[in-house]
Amino acid sequence: MRFFVSIVIVMGGASVAEAQYAGSTIGVVATGTSANDELTLGGQYSLGIEGEHRMGVGNWKGTYRATVGYAQSFRTTGRSLFPARVDAGIRYDLLEDRRRPYFAAAFSYWQLTNPPSGYVDPTRLVAPALRIGYEHYFATEISLSLEVGGAWFLVVDGPDPILLDYGIGLRTHY
User: Fold this and answer.
1) 128/16: higher pLDDT
2) Structural domain count of the chain
3) How many C-beta atoms lie closer than 10 Å to residue 143's C-beta?
4) Do residues 116 and 150 lie in contact, with contact meaning Cβ atoms separated by under 8 Å?
5) Residue 9 and residue 97: Cα distance in Å, rounded?
6) Are strands 80-81 and 142-152 parallel, antiparallel or unpaired?
7) Mean pLDDT, the chain, as a whole number?
8) What domain range includes position 115?
9) Nearest-angstrom CA–CA distance, 45 and 35
10) pLDDT tens figures, 60-111
11) Is the pLDDT of residue 7 over 80?
12) What is the bridge-based pairing of β-strands 162-173 and 24-33?
């Protein structure tokens, strides 16, 4: 019986130690975007919930993530958006340690609600995006990440503007 209990304890400890390599995360993120006059969107900050799933071998991973949150415009008081964003792409981790700088390329889909008055562009925006970031694991299953990126929005019958965004996130891995 002791042997069985010790095996269960060792297996439980080993699974926690491997949580930082788990493929799924969920957490809170704070993000910001630059102003873009071509999209008639002011700079904004947001707070949301983000889930991500990674699949891959070695340092290369296919990723998809979804973010939903509340956003507030920097310029227009009282103007809030409730954006939803979905990204699908690839990520390359430069290190596989507790400190992980990375870069990623993805396609982003943004869904805006409550757009500003006079906003004529679509509320659904699609963009190829490039990102660089840094992820630091404080515990085996908790990480803090910093990320900077740019998205090139494809607008039908209009200019294709570039929007810069940045974010900080606190996630748990499972």
Assistant:
1) 128
2) 1
3) 21
4) no
5) 25
6) unpaired
7) 79
8) 2-173
9) 11
10) 999 999 988 888 777 666 666 767 889 999 999 999 888 999 999 999 888 8
11) no
12) antiparallel
- Cβ contacts of residue 66 below 8 Å, gap of 6+? 50, 51, 52, 84, 85, 86, 87
What does the alpha-carbon distance between residue 161 and residue 45 come to, in Å, rounded to a whole number? 19
Rounded Cα distance between 69 and 8, Å, is: 40
| Cβ atoms of residues 48 and 66 within 8 Å | no
Tokens linked to 27: 């957490």
CA angle 145, 147, 149 (to 5 degrees): 165
- Closest to 165 measured CA to CA, from 143, 148, 145, 152: 148
pLDDT at 122 over 80: no
Identify the CA nearest to 128 among candidates 82, 167, 84, 89. Answer: 89
Contact status, residue 71 vs residue 83, Cβ threshold 8 Å: yes
pLDDT confidence of 121, banded at 50, 70, 90? low
The rounded distance, in Å, linking the Cα atoms of 119 and 87 is 24
CATH number at residue 141: 2.40.160.20
Euclidean distance between CA atoms 88 and 40, whole angstroms? 26
Q: 78 — alpha (psi -120 to 50), left (phi > 0) or beta? A: left
How much of the chain, in percent, has pLDDT values that exceed 70? 70
